[in-house]
């Protein structure tokens, strides 16, 4: 039997290896950290037949070293890189003119910032290798349609893949139903239909573990569903007697549901009780059209029908909301979609907002460490009447550029390089306005939906999965 000293030596080497890679890791998320630790502990209990055998730990150390090296690349000293980026700060910031009506967004949650811009440097060999080391045009090349769903009788307004799962896809329609599809079968098939709403579906969200779906409808209710059966577990009525426009689970506390309605009210509900949270109320200038959360759950962004973008501080324990700042878009056009990204690569760490504005524009805003919001890029997308949505491409931080994707009222799906503003791709296949788009977490599949109820799963070139 090996000595405890030998076992502890290998254990310390494992801890030391993790410590070396800590600076390269994304921002810590308590939610995923707890899931990871629980799963890791479960595997250790199942697999560790002899906990005092150092050979098991040595094998684990070798395997973990290979995985971390593949994910983040070899450990290098980059002291000179930090100084170069610091010297470049003024030039990078000066290239971002402040848009009319902009103000500061105070983001008190811990975020990391990077002043050298949003595009990864050529030194990120490991990251580029993960994305295939291709150009953006090559990486986002498509070879047609993999599958088409058309069972809905009304336009499909919102579509989302499940969290970290490329086998489940859901969408909500103007025919008052939601559909959950399974993509593991050949061909992909409808898993279940969620029935119960009386009017169109405006928004929905997956729970953290994908066990539940919450939906918002123009019938003035929010419904909690069991995703694997389609059973309605709870109905939450909006007491204001208006349309329920948007909803999302809190990213750190899955018991909190954040909602927005047509009277400009933000409300936080306790999903378990169906009741509102004390202090979890606030207002926007117009009808709330879209919600987004910063990854730690500390800041909520809400866009409205009068061209305003609001930030709110949210307490993940009590659910209280505190309004922070307001950003106004010139012309007062509706902002139909908002997405936020806390950058998690070594090269581009600025918190970023993506807005779909009904003045035929897709706008990218950069939030600096002093709280100032700058218009980084404005891209053209046909959008003036419909509630068009957009999204960040998940693997953008691994490429030699960063991309976003959006639907368009001309029936096309648009992809843009946000650093240059150039169009990377335009997918044609819909015959009416494309209302929403969604990627799988690994970009293996892209889904889009339109105003006539058609859902298209797009086939990536060179992707056999």
TrEMBL record:
SMART domains: WD40 (SM00320)
WD-type repeats, residues: 194-235, 427-459
Gene Ontology molecular function: any one: promoter-specific chromatin binding
Keyword Cell wall biogenesis/degradation: no
Alphabetically ordered keywords of this record: Repeat, WD repeat
One Pfam family it belongs to: WD40
Keyword ATP-binding appears in the UniProt entry: no
Xref: PROSITE patterns: WD_REPEATS_2, WD_REPEATS_REGION
Domain of life from the UniProt record: Eukaryota
Residue span of region Disordered: 72-111
Gene Ontology cellular-component terms listed: nucleus
Protein name listed in UniProt: Uncharacterized protein
Naturally occurring in which organism (per UniProt): Amphimedon queenslandica
């Amino acid at each position: 039997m090996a000595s405890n000293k030998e076992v502890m030596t290998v254990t310390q080497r494992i801890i030391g290896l993790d410590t070396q890679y800590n600076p390269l890791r994304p921002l810590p998320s308590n939610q995923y950290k707890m899931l990871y630790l629980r799963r890791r502990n479960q595997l250790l209990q199942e697999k560790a037949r002899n906990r005092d055998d150092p050979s098991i730990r040595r094998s684990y150390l070798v395997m973990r070293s290979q995985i971390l090296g593949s994910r983040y690349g070899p450990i290098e000293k980059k002291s000179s890189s930090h100084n170069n980026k610091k010297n470049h700060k003024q030039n990078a910031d000066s290239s971002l003119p402040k848009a009319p009506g902009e103000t500061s967004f105070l983001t008190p949650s811990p975020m990391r910032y990077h002043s050298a811009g949003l595009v990864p440097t050529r030194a990120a060999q490991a990251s580029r290798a993960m994305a295939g080391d291709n150009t953006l045009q090559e990486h986002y090349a498509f070879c047609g349609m993999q599958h088409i769903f058309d069972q809905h009788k009304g336009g499909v307004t919102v579509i989302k893949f499940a969290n970290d799962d490329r086998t489940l896809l859901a969408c909500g329609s103007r025919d008052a139903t939601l559909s959950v599809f399974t993509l593991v079968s050949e061909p992909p098939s409808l898993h279940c239909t969620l029935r119960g709403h009386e009017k169109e579906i405006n928004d929905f969200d997956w729970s953290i573990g994908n066990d539940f779906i919450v939906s918002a409808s123009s019938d003035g209710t929010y419904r909690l569903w069991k995703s694997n059966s389609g059973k309605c577990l709870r109905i939450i009525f909006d007491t204001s007697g208006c349309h329920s426009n948007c909803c999302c689970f809190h990213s750190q506390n899955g018991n909190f549901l954040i909602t927005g309605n047509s009277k400009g009210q933000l409300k936080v509900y306790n999903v378990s009780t169906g009741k509102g949270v004390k202090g979890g109320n606030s207002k926007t200038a117009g009808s709330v059209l879209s919600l987004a959360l910063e990854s730690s759950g500390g800041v909520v962004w809400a866009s409205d029908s009068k061209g305003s973008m609001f930030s709110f501080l949210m307490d993940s324990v009590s659910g209280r909301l505190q309004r922070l700042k307001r950003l106004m878009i010139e012309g007062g056009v509706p902002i139909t979609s908002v997405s936020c990204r806390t950058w998690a690569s070594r090269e581009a760490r600025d918190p970023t907002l993506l807005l779909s504005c009904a003045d035929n524009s897709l706008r990218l805003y950069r939030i600096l460490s002093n709280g100032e919001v700058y218009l980084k890029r404005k891209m053209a997308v046909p959008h003036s009447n419909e509630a068009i949505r957009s999204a960040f491409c998940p693997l953008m931080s691994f490429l030699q550029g960063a991309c976003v994707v959006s639907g368009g009222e001309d029936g096309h799906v648009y992809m843009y390089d946000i650093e240059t503003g150039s169009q990377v791709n335009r997918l044609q296949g819909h015959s009416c306005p494309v209302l929403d788009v969604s990627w799988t977490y690994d970009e293996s599949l892209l889904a889009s939906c339109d105003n006539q109820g058609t859902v298209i799963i797009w086939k990536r070139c060179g992707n056999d999965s």
